[in-house]
């Protein structure tokens, strides 16, 4: 969407007019007006400003590349999942072999960023689904987790977004995801409790039934023997 005036004018006009529902990442309508390169330039200036305000000497050899490094990392890496174009293409196949039990992809490594403090969230996601006719490539589940994790996030929303996307891809409600993750904003600052972790879950369709849910949880807790 292109409009007249400066980007600042445009932000001003938009005010709090977000396009998101509660399960969606709260993005502004103009989120993708700027190219990645333009975003990196702007963020670079902001990071420089923060470091200067803190009193850091940006002429120092070790620090002079930091604004650019952080800006690139934000746009291309840790927040690289904000752009819908980055959504992985999840190839599905017909369930020709008529596999009728649940499939569990467990211990998926998850790196995200807490949107309240911009500190890391590090953990594991466990996904299960029961095929309604389609099966999805195993790695696509890891890729979906990674895509939604590369955003400023809260764990609850991340968990729901993963389940909704898989339900869409597979054409079935019968999808579940459990996430167990450490939030560095709890572990390394504030209350500084290094031991605690946060567990969230989203159960769709048949996973709302106790027996089905328990089977999934048993697989997650099963020791992997290799
Ligand atoms: N529900 C939820 N809360 C989160 C998540 N990540 C971080 N938080 C919490 O967001 C809250 C923000 O609370 P504030 O009181 O505004 O922030 P704060 O003063 O830095 O709070 P403390 O961390 O208690 O020092 C904190 O309690 C965080 O632990 C998340 O994924 N889900
Ligand atoms: Zn936080």
UniProtKB/TrEMBL annotation:
<feature type="binding site">
    <location>
        <position position="117"/>
    </location>
    <ligand>
        <name>Zn(2+)</name>
    </ligand>
</feature>
<dbReference type="GO" id="GO:0003934">
    <property type="term" value="F:GTP cyclohydrolase I activity"/>
</dbReference>
<feature type="binding site">
    <location>
        <position position="114"/>
    </location>
    <ligand>
        <name>Zn(2+)</name>
    </ligand>
</feature>
<feature type="region of interest" description="Disordered">
    <location>
        <begin position="1"/>
        <end position="23"/>
    </location>
</feature>
<keyword id="KW-0862">Zinc</keyword>
<dbReference type="InterPro" id="IPR001474">
    <property type="entry name" value="GTP_CycHdrlase_I"/>
</dbReference>
<dbReference type="InterPro" id="IPR018234">
    <property type="entry name" value="GTP_CycHdrlase_I_CS"/>
</dbReference>
<keyword id="KW-0547">Nucleotide-binding</keyword>
<feature type="domain" description="GTP cyclohydrolase I">
    <location>
        <begin position="43"/>
        <end position="220"/>
    </location>
</feature>
<dbReference type="InterPro" id="IPR043133">
    <property type="entry name" value="GTP-CH-I_C/QueF"/>
</dbReference>
<comment type="pathway">
    <text>Cofactor biosynthesis; 7,8-dihydroneopterin triphosphate biosynthesis; 7,8-dihydroneopterin triphosphate from GTP: step 1/1.</text>
</comment>
<dbReference type="Pfam" id="PF01227">
    <property type="entry name" value="GTP_cyclohydroI"/>
</dbReference>
<comment type="subunit">
    <text>Homopolymer.</text>
</comment>
<keyword id="KW-0378">Hydrolase</keyword>
<keyword id="KW-0554">One-carbon metabolism</keyword>
<keyword id="KW-0479">Metal-binding</keyword>
<comment type="similarity">
    <text>Belongs to the GTP cyclohydrolase I family.</text>
</comment>
<feature type="binding site">
    <location>
        <position position="185"/>
    </location>
    <ligand>
        <name>Zn(2+)</name>
    </ligand>
</feature>
<dbReference type="InterPro" id="IPR020602">
    <property type="entry name" value="GTP_CycHdrlase_I_dom"/>
</dbReference>
<dbReference type="InterPro" id="IPR043134">
    <property type="entry name" value="GTP-CH-I_N"/>
</dbReference>
<protein>
    <recommendedName>
        <fullName>GTP cyclohydrolase 1</fullName>
        <ecNumber>3.5.4.16</ecNumber>
    </recommendedName>
</protein>
<keyword id="KW-0342">GTP-binding</keyword>
């Amino acid at each position: 969407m292109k409009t007249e005036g400066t980007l600042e004018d445009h932000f001003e006009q938009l005010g709090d007019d977000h396009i998101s529902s509660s399960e969606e990442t709260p993005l502004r309508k103009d989120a993708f007006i700027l190219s990645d390169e333009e975003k990196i330039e702007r963020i670079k200036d902001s990071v420089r400003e923060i470091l200067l305000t803190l009193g850091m000497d940006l002429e120092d050899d070790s620090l002079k590349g930091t604004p650019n490094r952080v800006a690139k990392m934000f746009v291309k890496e840790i927040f690289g999942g904000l752009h819908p174009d980055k959504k992985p293409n999840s190839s599905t196949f017909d369930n020709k072999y008529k596999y009728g039990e649940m499939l569990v992809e467990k211990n998926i490594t998850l790196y995200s960023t807490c949107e309240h403090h911009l500190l890391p969230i590090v953990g594991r996601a466990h996904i299960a689904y029961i095929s309604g006719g389609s099966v999805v490539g195993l790695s696509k589940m890891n890729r979906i987790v990674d895509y939604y994790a590369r955003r400023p996030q809260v764990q609850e929303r991340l968990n729901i977004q993963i389940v909704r996307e898989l339900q869409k891809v597979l054409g079935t409600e019968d999808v579940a995801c459990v996430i167990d993750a450490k939030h560095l904003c709890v572990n390394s600052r504030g209350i500084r409790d290094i031991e605690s972790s946060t567990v969230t879950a989203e159960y769709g369709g048949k996973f709302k039934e106790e027996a089905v849910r328990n089977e999934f949880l048993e697989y997650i807790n099963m020791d992997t023997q290799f």
